[in-house]
Design a protein that fits this description.
globular; Quinone Oxidoreductase, Chain A, domain 1; alpha/beta; 27% helix
Amino acid sequence: MNSYNSLQLWYNGKVQSRLKNLTLHTKNMEPDELIVRSLYSYISAGTERTIICNPPKNKVISKEMAVPYMLGNFNSEFTYGYSLVGEVIEGTDKWLGKTIHVMHPHQEYAMVKERDVYCIPDGISSKAATLISNLETVINAVWDSELTLGDKVLIVGFGNIGALLASVVKRIPGVDVYISETNQTRKEFAIKQNFNVLSLSELKDNFTISFNTSNSESGLQLAIDQTSIEGKVVELSWYGPRNISLELGGSFHYGRKQLISSQVSRIPAKKRLYFDYKSRKDLVIKLLSEIDFNFMLNIEVPFQNAPEIYNQLINEKINEIGLLFNYKL
């Protein structure tokens, strides 16, 4: 029987984080469980910052926002994280040595169920595989928008979701994609990646579809105002317990605009006949094999530095869009 000492990242709901030790014992494993040695995990900055700074108190929302294998609870200390990629080092022969993706909090070693892991095929790097969860969000957003040939698209916010969304949508023939970003660092980064970035003065309120990924009410208001008559606004941000104020007395009403909430945990009804969670991940792998997302993976941080990184994240001192923990450094 083996045991593994694993560092975990914990938050206490008072905008503080720390690393704690957990020991995993293989003698406690069920036949369908695996031990995974983490390689990388991706930081979903907007959602994780909101969760840490404003943990949900409502029981229903708390249940919805909890992640698989999360320990603790939002009322005290808890672990969190979205997208972990690692190597299976204990388990059945079918899985031993495989590189897998699993939704799991940031942690060095993990004990997980076989049913929860997805095997990363050859040709997809471990780093790129950390984008799987956020690309599932992007796929849902495109499905919800019903985007089609000839659409003129505005993406408000060029964080990790906005950048992934822009990368996917601009590959659709006949679709024009534009970015609005107020953060100067991210704006310059988007320009460097050859995206069409518009200043506020250049916006002309003629977009058939607008996506808000900015996690701000001003970003959502901009998306509403810049959408054309009978256009769609797709909201990808989660605001936690914050109250959001919008001005809907302008073009929103007479323009018959649609405001749609999009999130990842449910596949849109119109797609459920053709996709389940496994086949949606298969589609993500297809995107990873066809689109170069390496520009999203430019910042690697040793996991031992996680508390310091999260203190910077909480204080909004991190502007990078692609930030991941490296468990090998």
